[in-house]
Amino acid sequence: MARAVVVYRSRTGVTRRYAEEISSLLRTKGVMTQLVSVGECDMATLAGADFLFLGCWTSGLFVIGQHPDEPWLAFVRDMPRLDGSGVGPKVALFTTYKLLTGSQFPRMRAALAGKVPAPELELKSRDGRLSPRDDEAVELFIS
Ligand SMILES: Cc1cc2nc3c(=O)[nH]c(=O)nc-3n(C[C@H](O)[C@H](O)[C@H](O)COP(=O)(O)O)c2cc1C
C-alpha cells in the first residue's frame, strides 16, 4: 500500500483544513496517510514515504514578497535529505492565500532544493477547500 505524509504549517486553521481535505482524499484513494503539523512531525516518519505533501500559508505584502513563514522554513532546515540514493518521495506543495501566491511556491522550492526531489504538483486554495480540479490533479499525481 502506498504511503503519504501530509505536513502543514497553519496560523489560523485554513491551511490545516486544506491539509485535512488532501489527507481525506488520499485515504479515499487507498493511500495510507499521516497528517501532521510542522511542530508535531517526527522526521523518522518521512523516510520511505511514497508521497510527501508540504504546505504552508502564504505570508507577504499581499502583492509582493510572498514566502513561507519561519516555522515552515525551520522545519525544512531540520528535515533530513530524502533523495539520498536517487530515490525519494514524489513531492507536492500546497498553500492557502487571500490575493496572490506570487513568490510563495518558488520560495518553498528554493528552501527544499537538495533535500527532496523537485516538487511535481502545486495546489492552492483561498478557503482551504479542495476544488474538483485539485481532486483530479491529486489523482493524477498519485497514479
Ligand atoms: C501577516 C499576513 C500576511 C499575509 N500575506 C499574504 C500575501 O502576501 N498574499 C496573500 O494572498 N495572502 C496573504 N495573507 C493571507 C493568508 O495567506 C491567508 O489568510 C491564509 O489562508 C492563512 O492561512 P492559515 O489560516 O493556515 O494561517 C497574509 C496573512 C497575514 C496574516
Explain how this protein is built.
By secondary structure, the protein is an alpha/beta fold. It has a single domain (3-142), classed as Flavodoxin domain (Rossmann fold, 3-Layer(aba) Sandwich). It has helices at 14-28, 70-78, 104-112, 132-142, and strands at residues 3-9, 32-37, 51-56, 90-96, 121-125. It has a 5-stranded parallel sheet with strand order 2-1-3-4-5, with helices on both faces. Strand 1 (3-9), helix 1 and strand 2 form a beta-alpha-beta unit. The longest helix has 15 residues, at 14-28. Bound molecules: flavin mononucleotide.
What radius of gyration results from the CA coordinates?
14 Å
- Are there runs of 5+ residues with pLDDT below 50, and where? none
The strand order across the widest sheet is 2-1-3-4-5
**Number of E-state strands:** 5
Give keywords.
4 helices; alpha/beta; single chain; binds flavin mononucleotide
Strand and helix map with partners:
Elements (H helix, E strand, L loop, with lengths): L2 E7 L4 H15 L3 E6 L13 E6 L13 H9 L11 E7 L7 H9 L8 E5 L6 H11 L1
Parallel strand pairs: 1-2, 1-3, 3-4, 4-5
Bound molecules: flavin mononucleotide.
